[in-house]
Design a protein that fits this description.
It is globular, with a radius of gyration of 20 Å. It is α/β, with parallel strands linked by helices and 358 residues long. Helix 3 links the parallel strand 1 and strand 2. Strands 1, 2, 3, 4, 5, 6, 7, 8, 9 and 10 form a 10-stranded mixed beta sheet that branches. The two termini are 25 Å apart. The protein is built from 14 helices and 10 strands. 41% of the residues lie in helices and 19% in strands.
Length: 358
Amino acid sequence: MHIRRKPAAATAAVLALALSACGSGGSGDDAQESGGKTVTLVSHDSWAASEEVIAAFEKESGFKVKVLEDGDAGQALNKAVLTKDHPQGDVLFGVDNTLLSRALDNELFDPYEAEDAAKVGEEFRVEGDAATPVTTGDVCVNYDKAYFEEKGLEPPRTFDDLIDPRYKNLLVTENAGTSSPGLGFLLGTAAEYGDKGWQDYWKKLKANGLKVVSGWEQAYNEEFSGSAGGKQAGGERPLVVSYASSPPVEVIYADPQPEEAPTGVATGTCFRQVEYAGLLRNAKNPEGGKALLDFLVSERFQEDLPLNMFVNPVREGAELPEAFTEHGAVAEDPRTLAPEKIAAHRDEWVDSWTSLVL
């Protein structure tokens, strides 16, 4: 999940810090100077971690971390499949449960059981340790509180609400064929309305003025009127498919910080995601990759996740920061689908969605 969550104003600064710490632009010489070898992490564009946490891993393991960002989660996975015989890195991070079967079917990963795997919630683990769970979160519709207050209109709460004429021309979502949250939203509707009902729902959603863009960054930071980035870009859509953990971003990175988040979450529209990492088959540095996977489920990294990538840890007992819990939303009953059902129908559903909506 993960998670394509930081507003535009904060994204550059946060990623610059994270990538500086991770040696994103580092060379082999840098790695030699650090006294170790380079381990390369391939990720979606929202990878972020605290400088001191990465530095501690590098010191303890002897491996210098290099990060390669490859767009949205779907784009990163597609590129990894195309380059699987000569992978770009050692570990791929950010493959979520909506796409995991594609990675496994293409035999991208060598199975590996992380050092603290027993401390990861059982509900997140993959049979045979084919991939390592790292984060979890919920894809949900977010709303611009100020817009609905000004209009004297109750914000939507459920999937059914979104096709109500009162919300015509208000929602922007991501392309389900190229974007992880876009696909998550599609699967949420499949879970809600079933194999036969979801297509009719999307016809109604389209008729109600739905706007589709390529990815989360464009949807949230350009089209959505409630985010800091969207305000700067003149976004006109007060509803966006994002995450239950997006509102804390709008508080933590604001200057001055508001007492409450300017955005809210329609908790009746949520779909549960889990993000995984895997040791890439044919990796040049498999030992470094294993050390990095151990690190990703360590207590230090798991407790660093919430205020960097704005996702929940999968490690049992990991503490959540107060700002994250105070401003984030909790979906009491997020929609889910069995992994085997996603694997069996995902491509078919995406093709049908593309024909219906695009």
